[in-house]
Each structure stands twice: as C-alpha cells, then as structure tokens.
Amino acid sequence: MVKLKDTYPLYLNNKAVLPNTDLEVTDKFTGEVAFRTALATPDVIDEAIAGAVRAAEPMAKMASFERQAVLQHCVTRFRERYDELAYSLCVEAGKPINDAEGEVDRLIDTFKIAAEEAVRNYGEVQPLDISARAKGYMGMWKRVPIGPCSFISPFNFPLNLAAHKIAPAIAMGCPFVMKPASKTPLGAIIMGEVLAETDLPEGAFSILPASRDGADLFTTDERLKLLSFTGSPGVGWDLKAKAGKKPVILELGGNAAVVVDKDADLDHALERIIFGAFYQSGQSCIGVQRIIIHDDIYDTFKAMLVEKTKSLVSGDPKDRNTFIGPMISTGEATRLKGWIDDAVAGGATLLCGGGCEGNMLQATLLENVDPSADANREEAFGPMALLSRFSTFEEAMAQVNDSKFGLQAGIFTRDIHKVLDAWDTLDVGGVVVNDVASYRVDNMPYGGVKDSGLGREGIRFAMEDMSEIRNLIIRRENAG
What we know:
This protein has 15 helices and 25 strands. By secondary structure, it is of the alpha/beta class.
C-alpha cells in the first residue's frame, strides 16, 4: 500500500531543504490536504541560480558517459518507485490511475531516450575552401551547453512535462532551476530526490515550488541563459516579454481538431477520439476539442460518439474503473461549465453531459456551436468536445486552420493523397494520421505554431535549444 509523507522538502543546489511547510497540496478528488511542501522564497531562488552558475563549468566538463550514468540511475529508480509515482499523480493531479501509470511509463521512456542521446552530441567537419581566398582552410563545429537554464512546468503532466526539461538538460550538461506547478509539485520533488542520489556537481539542479508572485527571478534573472515554459498561452507570452535577451521555449495551449473522413474506420476512430477528448478529464494541450466529420457519416458517427461518451465512468481516480476524474480545481470546472452554458444559450445543441458538481464536470459533447464562442475559439482544457460537419476535404482543412492555435491535428482517412495535402496545408506543429492529435512519442519533435508556442521538445530537439554552436577554423601553414 502506497502512502505519501506528510511533508516534502524543496531541493536547493542538489540538497533537500525544509525551511517551511507553507505550500498545502490537496487531494483533487476529496479536496482534503494531502501533504505539505516547502515553498521557495526569493532569496532561496537567488541562491539556487547562483549555484547553477557555479555548476555550469563542472557540468560542461562531465564526460558523456557520466551524464548517461546519471540518467540511467534515474530510469532504474523510477522503475523501483513506479507505484509511488503513479499514486502521487492520482492524489495531487486527480489523474485516473490508468492514465497515471501511463505517465510514469512515459517518464521512464523520456529518461531512457535522454541517456541514449547523452552520448550522441555530434558536430560536423565542414570544408571551407569554397573560393580561392579560403584555400587551405577547414572548419569544425560542436555543440556546447548554453549554461544555467530555467524551467517552469505545468500541473497536467507533473512528471513527464518536467522530465522533458530535466532529462535533456542533464544529457546536454546544463545546470537548471525548476519551478513545478504549485498544485502538483510532488512529481518534480521525487525526481529531485532521485537526482540527489547521483554525483552531479553541486548546484546542478534545484527543484523549487514557488508562488507565481515570488517566481519572477525564474524569468528575469540575466544569469539564466534559457527559459523553457510549458503552460497557458497568456502566461507564456507574458513571460517571453519579460525574459530579456535569453532564448525562450514555449509549449502552450491548443484547441486541437480531428478530421474523420468518409472512408475512416469508424470503430477505431471512435475509440481513439473518446480517449483523445476525455483522458485525464480533457486536461491536455493536445486534447481533442473539435471533431470535424464528413457529411456522409456525420449522423452515424455522432450517435456512436454520444453513446460511448455517456458510458464513461466518472469518480475516484484511484478506482481502476474510473475514466473521468476531477478537474484540477473547482474554479476551472466552473469556467468550462460557463463556456458550455454560453454555447447552448448561443444556439448550440447539448448532445450529452454538461453537468458539474464541484470540480467534477461531466464528459460533454456539443454541436452547432457558434464559431465565435469561447468553447470553439479558446482552449477548453477540460472534458468537452464539439462536433461539426464538412463536405469537401478542403473545407475540413480550412476548419482545422480556423484557430489561433496550431499544436497538432489528427486525420482519419485511407487516402494517402489527402494525408500529404494535410501535411502541406495544416498550420500546426504535427499531423497525426489515423489517430488523434493527442498522440505523442517522447523522442519526436513536439511543439506548435501561432499561439501554441515557440520551439520544439523531444530530447534531441530540446538539447539543441540548450546548446550553442561553437566553431573552430583551422588554416594549414602551407596553405597556398
């Protein structure tokens, strides 16, 4: 039987520190305080940044195999603490246990990929004799760590989205300070506990739960050479404006669309779309929000979706039969309930769901939603999806692109020509064929365009962002 502790520390320059227990973290299903953690004050954050600066040189000098060994240790320990990690997600995030275990699997995958990439930091030999003046010259370049990094991770994937910052930083040799979401800090704290068992140089990492007001240093401090933020678009773009000269990587929101063409396997599409729209109560930036269905199959597929949605079990996320757990807070559930009610008042048809009690919002399907409604234009980040029709594939592509977001899109079709047209046409970071936009493998380049962000995650691609290219030019003495 897994049991969480009553209190947890923060990690300051590789060490567990408990200066206070000011942050209360609730069980998102019961609403009761589950545990308390230390809350970092501005002076602690400043000390962590100073430690990261001191650690920059020894981190950069670590051999590839040494960084790999750290990451391999994490993989081993995460496997040993699998049940604890999954249970912590159930409690602090309200994530159904089956989804929680899936996230722990991805955490392990992410660190495994990083361990492999830690010894693949390749450069290039480049001929420079492209003209007479460069005869006898040759060039080489390599990637070097960018230096101390700042990471801010969100509440919805407390383990894996933190891992997508921490693991590539270690693989590249960058010290870091991390602010996990205050509603779900435990996953990152446990990662800090595991990292503290390794031989990383002092100051290589700090895991610092902090209030938003007390966390400006994560963004504005010039000693930090890169900011990587995953979270809401409004916060992300505001941080970018404050970040100064440092590069900023933003993984932000979306209102992902999926297209179901008339030749699709409807049974397969049904299972995947229900998953994409409602897993972990829809609290995913690539959760399916807009379902665009061909006229010829619209009525049939709508009936299938409604029947399946009504059958989903909601309740305690610790129960293996539960598919719909609580949203992260009553405020978030109330917000989305308001969007649903506004859409219905504006002429939309409520096909199923729509009820809300506390932070438990029923899985909801709507159709005929006004294109200008918040439910269509904004990011729902909850268990709600909208149905619409199309008659031509070009019309479907236009509907997908009619969004200020552009993270990923899904298409169910057997027509390879339509697949290639979508790849060319859709203004998104990724097109997923015969699956939902919610699909992600942790080594692929992942990120979006428009209001969905800047840059790409996926270990190798994150390592590129966490590095600088350093050139070497050599002139042979006997060059003519």
